[in-house]
């Protein structure tokens, strides 16, 4: 019996705990997942600066089961579980506009002409399309993928094994040539071909303007120039070859991720990574990371610094001798402001901050001798700022800013109009905080 389930992030799903997929992934961290069977964004353990490897997809706590800051689609056999953002309007015909919008802003892609199909299937399939340029650029930093291919020649420049049968058929009586085969590196191979097939499918079927990025455009030109044997009719053969022969060389691990993504895009709606349907597989997206990076697209223009934890960049020194660094989500040393991006639910009390989060804000505030420190979180009700209180001792104010995510929206175009209003209100509140400090 086929079972399909739609959940939302940060929700109590105890009633569904007997679902086979949920049972298998319960209390399993992202770092424990079999990467062969999952596409994880941002790529875990590699260049994701702030993604917590201890993040759970499903977590049991106090005899209850919850989803966390993860969205995506997970399958096993005929069963499928989709996790959407909690801001998704639970309708069969409506896409997760908030997730789609954050992808466009963070990855800097434009949607042109008209919107792609927005049914339940198309929603996460479209996310694969969004990820393609990201993974392509990431892989191309290693240069275009090359591998050995066996080639046949018929000339005098012998540099391989002579093919006796072909030599007899082609060159007897002797015509001055010799038939031979050799193995040599080639940029035109199964991996670059599947990337080319994916590119052509996107160009044919989608109205996304991926190609306004100068560096991406250059990468695409290099790919096209080096895949001259491309034929659309070869798709099935190329797809099968890549499924059976994944990239394994450690130097090209970025191409392995890109190869997996291309396979999914070319196989359309079926989310799997091979021939064994009994293995759990899926697409996993850390939406908390996406929320933080989305805020950065706005706060960077307000002179806030967004440190990169795992790269040890732009942190704040905890001690005067710089022996240890800390990494707030955002800070402005000139204005003495600390901002913390929180995607998780923060409770119904507008003036409450969880104890661990509060202690973290206070410690950051103390280190920079700051004046204000606050949490920014998404909310369905309205955009507003709330003062939590003035701190004793060294002083400073703690606050919360809610960011309204539009609800009851009939189409994506309307969603964009409404969320831009939320962005304007949010930035005005940031400006007000800065003015009060001055």
UniProtKB/TrEMBL annotation:
<protein>
    <submittedName>
        <fullName>McrBC 5-methylcytosine restriction system component</fullName>
    </submittedName>
</protein>
<dbReference type="InterPro" id="IPR019292">
    <property type="entry name" value="McrC"/>
</dbReference>
<dbReference type="Pfam" id="PF10117">
    <property type="entry name" value="McrBC"/>
</dbReference>
């Amino acid at each position: 019996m086929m079972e399909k389930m739609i959940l939302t992030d940060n929700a109590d799903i105890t009633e569904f705990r007997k679902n086979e997929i949920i049972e298998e992934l319960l209390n399993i961290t992202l770092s424990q997942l079999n990467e062969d069977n999952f596409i994880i964004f941002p790529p875990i353990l590699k260049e994701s600066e702030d993604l917590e490897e201890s993040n759970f997809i499903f977590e049991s706590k106090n005899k209850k089961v919850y989803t966390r800051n993860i969205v995506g689609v997970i399958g096993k056999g005929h069963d499928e579980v989709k996790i959407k953002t909690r801001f998704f309007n639970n309708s069969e015909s409506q896409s997760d506009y908030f997730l789609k919008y954050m992808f466009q802003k963070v990855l800097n892609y434009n949607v042109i002409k008209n919107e792609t199909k927005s049914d339940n299937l198309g929603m996460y399939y479209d996310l694969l399309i969004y990820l393609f340029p990201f993974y392509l650029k990431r892989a191309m930093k290693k240069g275009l993928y090359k591998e050995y291919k066996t080639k046949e020649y018929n000339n005098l420049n012998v540099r391989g094994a002579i093919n006796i049968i072909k030599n007899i058929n082609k060159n007897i009586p002797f015509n001055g040539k010799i038939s031979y085969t050799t193995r040599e590196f080639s940029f035109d191979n199964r991996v670059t071909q599947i990337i080319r097939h994916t590119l052509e499918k996107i160009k044919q079927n989608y109205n996304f303007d991926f190609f306004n990025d100068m560096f991406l455009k250059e990468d695409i030109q290099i790919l096209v120039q080096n895949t001259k044997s491309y034929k659309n009719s070869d798709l099935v053969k190329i797809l099968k070859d890549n499924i059976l022969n994944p990239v394994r060389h450690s130097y090209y691990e970025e191409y392995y991720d890109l190869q997996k993504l291309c396979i999914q895009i070319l196989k359309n709606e079926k989310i799997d990574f091979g021939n064994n349907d009994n293995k759990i597989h899926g697409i996993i997206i850390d939406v908390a990371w996406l929320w933080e990076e989305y805020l950065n697209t706005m706060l960077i223009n307000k002179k806030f610094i967004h440190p990169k934890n795992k790269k040890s960049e732009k942190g704040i020194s905890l001690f005067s001798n710089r022996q240890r660094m800390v990494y707030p989500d955002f800070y402005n040393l000139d204005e003495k402001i600390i901002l913390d991006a929180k995607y998780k639910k923060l409770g119904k009390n507008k003036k409450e901050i969880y104890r661990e989060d509060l202690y973290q804000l206070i410690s950051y505030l103390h280190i920079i001798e700051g004046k204000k420190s606050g949490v920014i979180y998404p909310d369905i009700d309205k955009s507003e700022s709330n003062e939590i209180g003035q701190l004793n001792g060294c002083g400073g104010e703690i606050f919360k800013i809610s960011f309204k995510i539009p609800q009851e929206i009939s189409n994506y175009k309307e969603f964009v109009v409404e969320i831009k209003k939320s962005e304007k209100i949010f930035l005005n509140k940031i400006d007000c905080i800065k003015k009060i400090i001055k």
